Amino acid sequence: RKEFVDLYVNYVFNESIRKPFEDFMKGFLRGCPARRWKMFLPVELQIILQGHTRCDWNLLQKNVKYSQYERLDQTIRNFWTVFHKLPEEKKKMFIAFLTGSNRIPGYVLEHFTFTIADPKVENPDESCPSASTCSRILFLPR
């Protein structure tokens, strides 16, 4: 029985995916040669490829830039009050709304920043927040 289980596990986790994995690896290494990846530790490589899975939300708040707003404006204070009360999953959904991914990109977490801007709409009560994912700008109506 042990031999059967060992052979079955080997088939499921190794043999059955060998060809698709080799095809994937060949394509991946064509665009990203292996010699470039050897300088990274496995943990560093995982962060580069996947992004950060955890975030220091207070640090994120500290790094935010403001356009047509000041840090102490009532709209900004209300935004951060509500944001910090959100559960972790909703905060990640906000990051996805802002950047297109629910993870902070793989560079140094301390340097991740975004901008909160006033979209200067005629009637702010009729406007919803929007985002420019490429520029990482949150347009937050007053």
Automatic annotation (TrEMBL):
<protein>
    <recommendedName>
        <fullName>HECT-type E3 ubiquitin transferase</fullName>
        <ecNumber>2.3.2.26</ecNumber>
    </recommendedName>
</protein>
<dbReference type="GO" id="GO:0000209">
    <property type="term" value="P:protein polyubiquitination"/>
</dbReference>
<keyword id="KW-0808">Transferase</keyword>
<feature type="domain" description="HECT">
    <location>
        <begin position="1"/>
        <end position="142"/>
    </location>
</feature>
<keyword id="KW-0436">Ligase</keyword>
<keyword id="KW-0833">Ubl conjugation pathway</keyword>
<dbReference type="InterPro" id="IPR035983">
    <property type="entry name" value="Hect_E3_ubiquitin_ligase"/>
</dbReference>
<dbReference type="InterPro" id="IPR000569">
    <property type="entry name" value="HECT_dom"/>
</dbReference>
<dbReference type="GO" id="GO:0016874">
    <property type="term" value="F:ligase activity"/>
</dbReference>
<dbReference type="InterPro" id="IPR044611">
    <property type="entry name" value="E3A/B/C-like"/>
</dbReference>
<dbReference type="GO" id="GO:0061630">
    <property type="term" value="F:ubiquitin protein ligase activity"/>
</dbReference>
<dbReference type="Pfam" id="PF00632">
    <property type="entry name" value="HECT"/>
</dbReference>
<feature type="active site" description="Glycyl thioester intermediate">
    <location>
        <position position="134"/>
    </location>
</feature>
